[in-house]
Write a structure and sequence with these properties.
Layout lengths: L5 H22 L1 H10 L20 H6 L15 E5 L7 E5 L1 H16 L8 E4 L7 H12 L3 E3 L6 H10 L4 E4 L1 H13 L12 E5 L5 H11 L2 E8 L4 E7 L6 E3 L4 E6 L13 E7 L10 E7 L1 E2 L11 E2 L4 E2 L4 E3 L2 E3 L1 H8 L5 E12 L2 E10 L8 H19 L4 E5 L14 E3 L6
Parallel strand pairs: 3-4, 3-5, 5-6, 6-7, 18-21, 19-20
Antiparallel strand pairs: 1-2, 7-8, 8-9, 9-14, 10-11, 11-12, 12-15, 13-14, 16-17, 18-19
Helix pairs in contact: 1-2, 4-5, 6-7, 7-8, 9-10
The structure holds 5'-O-[hydroxy(phenylacetyl)phosphoryl]adenosine.
The site of 5'-O-[hydroxy(phenylacetyl)phosphoryl]adenosine (DLL) has 21 residues, from helix 5, strand 7, strand 8 and strand 12.
Length: 429
């Protein structure tokens, strides 16, 4: 599937799209209504090229149809329910038939196959287990590869690293920010050492991360670190993953058809341009989904990859359009700060941004941490680190931050998806 010719892939996508659209129209009143309103019937969809005739689905639609309004099978055929932890309002729900669970596990297994994960390998799953798809998703993928599953879930860091050493974990699955926290805890521990560990690969995702962070993790944990991408609405992790070339995240296009649209006009962008990622599920039974607007901003590359896979590659996610802040009229993504911080060996990749509006002007405060060996409690000594960081942020982003150096561990460590921003302006509008 990952290496089939583009022509065969389009044929397969066309067949699967036609079936999916029919199933949606016949079984989901929401889709029947949306398609009728858009004046499109299942007969109008003859190939994957017709996908742009279909209406979009948004997160609000999923909330309006909460919990099971989008199901296309009798509820008795459902075997599992997951949900994403919406910070406000109702969570977004996904339900799975037996086949959906198999397809999902295959998506994750394909990602793990790049590091030859298999029998005898111990896969420590430090994504949270529960309604969040990270834990059970990585778990089922590791099971499909025939590997040993070590379901530690997130948190309890001391014990995680003891087990990592004692059980000879080879593969670590967690968010990149938790991987960083684990790496730091290992480095600071007297009882364990990365040299005594058997770690060789990590599959990190669920939040944006940068190549700078990859380098840090690869050095600190002595592994090869791969990106794994996904979202609850499509299944969870395993919508795609990086190959050994680490040059873009391959998307499993036989299961999820990706498009990039301009988030304002909703028209497709020119090939290779940045925009909002939109997915149509091509195999899902329980909750098929048409043209879902992910709000993730990225671009697609259809050039063949050196690894031999023909599956399209996605650039690292810049962030969700909802993560983008407009500070003094300039668009800022939190991941840009991580990019800058990892260019400076003295800084940790941890940061926290506080945006406020004081006297009608936006303020931009950035908390950062120096690595303990560079930290001096005398603020005068810290100035030599602040100035180059300040200059680099101004040149990359174009606005001046107030930088505050926190003492070691002064920035909260995360065991799941890290929170990087507090925008106090939202309470002032
Ligand atoms: O985060 C699923 C997942 C779990 C993916 C474990 C990878 C590993 P949600 O909680 O629904 O699902 O959040 C999905 O997280 O739309 C992106 O904005 C972001 N995201 C997920 N993976 C990546 C990644 C899971 N590799 C949302 N890089 C997505 C950047 C990512 N952002």
């Amino acid at each position: 599937m990952e290496c089939m010719s583009r022509e065969d892939m389009r044929k397969l996508q066309s067949e699967r799209l036609i079936k999916t659209v029919k199933r949606c129209y016949e079984n989901v009143p929401f889709y029947r209504r949306k398609m009728d309103e858009a004046g499109v019937s299942p007969d109008d969809i003859k190939s994957i090229d017709d996908i742009c005739k279909l209406p979009f689905t948004t997160k609000q639609d999923l909330r309006d149809e909460y919990p099971f309004g989008l199901e296309a099978v009798p509820h008795s055929e459902v075997r599992r329910i997951h949900a994403s932890s919406g910070t406000t309002g109702k969570p977004v729900v996904d339900t799975y038939t037996e086949n959906d669970l198999k397809m999902w596990a295959e998506g994750v297994a394909r990602v793990m196959a790049v590091a030859d994960v298999g029998p005898g390998d111990t896969v420590q799953v430090s994504y949270g287990y529960g309604l969040f798809t990270g834990g059970l998703g990585a778990h089922d993928g590791a099971a499909m590869r025939g590997a040993i599953q070590l379901p530690t879930s997130a948190g309890n860091t001391e014990k995680q690293i003891m087990l990592m050493q004692d059980f000879r974990t080879n593969v670590l699955c967690c968010t990149p920010s938790y991987a960083m926290h684990l790496a730091e805890s290992i480095a600071n521990s007297r009882n364990v050492s990365v040299r005594l560990m058997k770690l060789r690969a990590g599959f990190f995702g669920a939040e944006p991360w940068t190549n700078g962070m990859r380098k840090e993790l690869e050095t600190k944990l002595q592994i090869k670190a791969y990106d794994i991408y996904g979202l609850t609405e499509m299944c969870g992790p395993g919508v795609g993953g990086e190959c050994e070339c680490q040059d873009g995240t391959h998307l499993w296009e036989d299961m999820f058809y990706p498009e990039i649209v301009n988030p304002e006009t909703l028209e497709p962008v020119a090939p290779g341009e940045f925009g909002e990622l939109v997915f149509t599920s091509l195999c899902k039974e329980a909750m098929p989904i048409l043209r879902y607007r992910t709000r993730d901003l990225t671009r697609l590359n259809y050039e063949p990859c050196k690894c031999g896979r023909t599956a399209v590659r996605m650039d690292r996610i810049l962030g969700r359009s909802d993560d983008m802040m407009i500070i003094r009229g300039v668009n800022v993504f939190p991941s840009q700060i991580e990019t800058v911080l990892t260019e400076f060996p003295a800084f940790q990749p941890y940061y926290f941004i506080t945006v406020d509006r004081i006297n009608n002007e936006d303020t931009f405060d950035l908390d950062v941490e120096l690595k303990p060996e560079f930290f001096a409690s005398d603020p005068a000594d810290q100035m030599k680190y602040i100035k180059p960081l300040f200059d680099r942020i101004v040149s990359l982003i174009g606005i001046k931050p107030n930088i505050h150096i926190k003492p070691p561990f002064g920035i909260e460590r995360s065991t799941g998806k890290a929170k990087h921003v507090s925008d106090k302006r939202v309470f002032k509008n």
